[in-house]
Amino acid sequence: AAGMAAPTMEERKACWGARDEFWQCLDSHGDDAAKCEKLRRAFESRCPQQWVKHFDKRRDFLKYKKKLETEGFHPPEAAGKS
Amino acid sequence: GGPRLPLRRRLAVAGAVAGAAAAGWLYVRHQKERRQRSRRLRDLRALALGQGDFQLRDTAGTARSKADFLGRWVLLYFGFTHCPDVCPEELEKLSRAVELLERDPALPPVQPLFVTVDPERDDEAALARYLRDFHPRLVGLTGTPEQVRAAAAAFRVYVSAGPRDADGDYVVDHSVLTFLVDPDGIFRDCYSRSRTAEEVARSVRGHMDTYEPLPL
Question: Cβ–Cβ of A50/B169 closer than 8 Å?
Fold first, then answer.
């Protein structure tokens, strides 16, 4: 599927910028996505859909990592395990 | 009985015989070691060519294999042009490491190489367009899916294309590593995402310092 060409350097930077603005908004609103709708739409319009998915996963991972660093690791209750 | 040689003379003769035997033994051992060394060098040279070899094409369409890069230090990265962030960052880092090394005129030049893990989309034109933004001497390599698969396998690089979306777009999950290969084609080191450009340059310089070319 040799569809669209890969984003250029300018397009990549525009996408990363929109992502960073969206993430900053989330950071300052306690991850309340409802408060950052406009920036979310800008982010989605500036980045290929695959990248939006990738960055959403990255954000989840970074937050999980931060949680581990600040709260420590609590293994989930292993019900029914011998 | 006939005249017997005095003790001193007998000792001298025994000593001479022992000495000759020892010299003979040392010579035989020396020859054996030389043969072993040269066999080892032959094996090492064959290993160097077989290890991490590839049959790919550069952005001019010219066939390139590892043999084409012998005589030069090589920093090689596997990636793809539709990569969201990691590949541009790693290529920036690679370019910067090469620039840092270029600042020292006493050091041999380093050849930066980019091998695509997405041959379906990354043809010569796509690679040329993408690599324009990085180091001017960065060479891009692509090939048939089989050739690219073989090259990745030769470097033990994990590659896994993700599912396509409605537009046919997809990302390729892959090991993020930059490999250092010496002028004999021997793999010397690999650098992960966590190493900075300065650290990579420092490491390459260290390898250059300890490098001894395989004798011809």
Answer: yes
